[in-house]
């Protein structure tokens, strides 16, 4: 039972102070969650605090490997629409 922070993390430090089990620490390239300390906030909060404050979609993975904040969940922009907009911008 542990969450994971992946390389899309921008090292904003937002998650560090909200982790009730102090499981998050700086790594060499991005923050890391200690699998031994992480409780996924079970018993403390209804939702994982790191994921609730993280400003980057897909930066935190749940124990099953799915993103805590999937694409479009924070921006409200469906991934297909974002990809279409990016193609239009790059075509200019």
Characterise this structure:
This protein is an alpha+beta fold and 92 residues long. The protein has a single domain, classed as Alpha-Beta Plaits. The chain has helices at residues 14-18, 49-53, 79-90; strands at residues 4-5, 24-25, 32-33, 60-61. The strands form two sheets. The chain has a two-stranded antiparallel ribbon with strand order 1-4. It has a two-stranded antiparallel ribbon with strand order 2-3. A hairpin with a 6-residue loop joins strand 2 (24-25) and strand 3 (32-33).
**Which CATH architecture would you pick?**
2-Layer Sandwich
Portion of residues within helices: 10-25%
Low-confidence stretches: none
Distance between the termini: 46 Å
Rg from alpha-carbon coordinates: 15 Å
Individual helix count: 3
Q: Summarize model confidence as the mean pLDDT.
A: 94
Q: Give the class-level CATH name.
A: Alpha Beta
Q: What would you call the structural class?
A: alpha+beta
Helix and strand element order: EHEEHEH
Strand content: 5-15%
Main sheet: strands, sense, barrel? 2 strands, antiparallel
> CATH fold name, please?
Alpha-Beta Plaits
Global outline = elongated
The main sheet orders its strands as 1-4
Tally of individual domains: 1
Number of strands: 4
Helix-strand blueprint:
Blueprint: E1 4-5, H1 14-18, E2 24-25, E3 32-33, H2 49-53, E4 60-61, H3 79-90
Antiparallel strand pairs: 1-4, 2-3
């Amino acid at each position: 039972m542990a969450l994971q922070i992946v390389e899309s993390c921008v090292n904003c430090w937002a998650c560090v102070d909200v982790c009730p089990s102090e499981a998050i620490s700086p790594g060499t390239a991005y923050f890391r969650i200690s699998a031994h300390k992480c409780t996924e906030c079970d018993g403390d909060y209804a939702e994982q605090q790191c994921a609730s404050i993280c400003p980057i979609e897909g930066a935190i993975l749940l124990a099953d490997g799915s993103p805590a904040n999937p694409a479009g969940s924070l921006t409200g922009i469906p991934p297909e629409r974002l990809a279409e907009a990016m193609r239009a911008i790059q075509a200019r």
